[in-house]
TrEMBL record:
Its main location: membrane. SUPFAM superfamilies: MetI-like (SSF161098). CDD domains: TM_PBP2 (cd06261). It comes from Pararhizobium capsulatum DSM 1112. Keywords: Cell membrane, Membrane, Sugar transport, Transmembrane, Transmembrane helix, Transport. It is found in: Cell membrane. This is Multiple sugar transport system permease protein. It is a multi-pass membrane protein. The chain crosses the membrane at residues 31-52, 91-112, 124-145, 157-177, 198-223, 255-275. Pfam families: BPD_transp_1.
Length: 291
């Protein structure tokens, strides 16, 4: 009977092979991540470069990657022909609807978190309203707004955006509130704190990351929404997605102006998401016990 004898040299060789495999896997992972990052950032980089190119450079052959004679005229002209109004209307409508979603959604989320099961039908029913395709209710909203004189008004669009994002806000806030131990509320009640002090001093600070996360997502969805704005508004209310679409419908598209207004539209969301990313990560981990 033969027996295999392990030598120190064999152990060292095996350890080196394992270390080499680990290092190779790390290198491959980083290469893949860099490729994916470049894939996503390349359109944004091209949009940014296009925004600073004068009109003549947009059609040169072969195309120039970097602007030869950089200019800011695309920003001023794009703002003047409708981009400025689009940004202003979108900012107003999205901000008001986000605030309304948080004000209306927090009490509903608290009731859902404290008195209903996380895996019950009610939570899924509320979230399923957000999954409904916008094309389903848009015709009903159009006919209703015509009867109520809400067509082409800021009020009508705010109502629609609030209706659209409220289910998601309720569902997200409920998940955050479930992470807050009930003992904190019980201790505050034992100390004699009224309900408004309980809300202001206990619940609101502990659920602040959830409020910020839900607000960011509601703001992004309202800022980017196009179908409701297209069908339910006319010439008085022009959101940014509708204004960008009009660049193609009513004039020969100027790609420099589109790039400039596109960068102005994307930049605030990128900056906001960058500074609030830890709250976004926390929102996606609450279901797995993340804190």
């Amino acid at each position: 009977m033969t027996m295999s004898v392990s030598t120190p040299y064999a152990d060292v060789s095996a350890a080196e092979n394992v270390t080499l495999a680990v290092r190779l896997s790390v290198v491959v992972k980083h290469v893949v991540l860099i490729m994916v990052l470049v894939l996503f950032l390349l359109p944004l980089a091209w949009l940014l470069l296009t925004a600073f190119k004068p009109y003549a450079e947009l059609f040169t052959s072969p195309p120039s990657v970097l602007p030869i004679n950089g200019t800011l005229v695309n920003f001023t002209e794009g703002w003047a022909i409708g981009g400025g109004k689009g940004i202003g209307d979108s900012l107003f409508v999205a901000s008001i609807s986000t605030v309304l979603c948080l004000i209306l959604g927090y009490p509903a989320a608290y009731a859902l978190a404290r008195w209903f099961s996380a895996h019950g039908q009610l939570s899924f029913t509320i979230l399923s309203l957000r999954m409904m395709p916008p094309i389903v209710p848009v015709i009903g909203f159009y006919l209703l707004f015509q009867e109520l004189s809400l067509f082409d008004t800021y009020t009508g669009l705010i109502v629609v955006y609030t209706f659209m994002n409220l289910p998601l806000v309720i569902w997200l806030l409920a998940e955050f509130i479930r992470q807050i131990p009930k003992t904190y509320e019980e201790a505050a009640r034992i100390d004699g704190a009224p309900w408004y002090r309980l809300f202001w001093d206990v619940l609101l600070p502990l659920s602040a990351p959830g409020i910020l996360t839900a607000g960011i997502l509601a703001m992004i969805f309202a800022w980017n929404e196009f179908l409701f704005a297209l069908v339910l508004t006319g010439e008085k209310v022009i959101t940014l997605p509708k204004a960008l679409a009009s660049f193609f419908l009513f004039q020969q598209p100027n790609w420099g102006q589109l790039g400039a207004i596109g960068i102005v539209a994307i930049a605030p969301l990128l900056v906001l998401s960058y500074y609030m990313q830890r709250f976004l990560i926390r929102s996606f981990s609450v279901g797995s016990g993340g804190r």
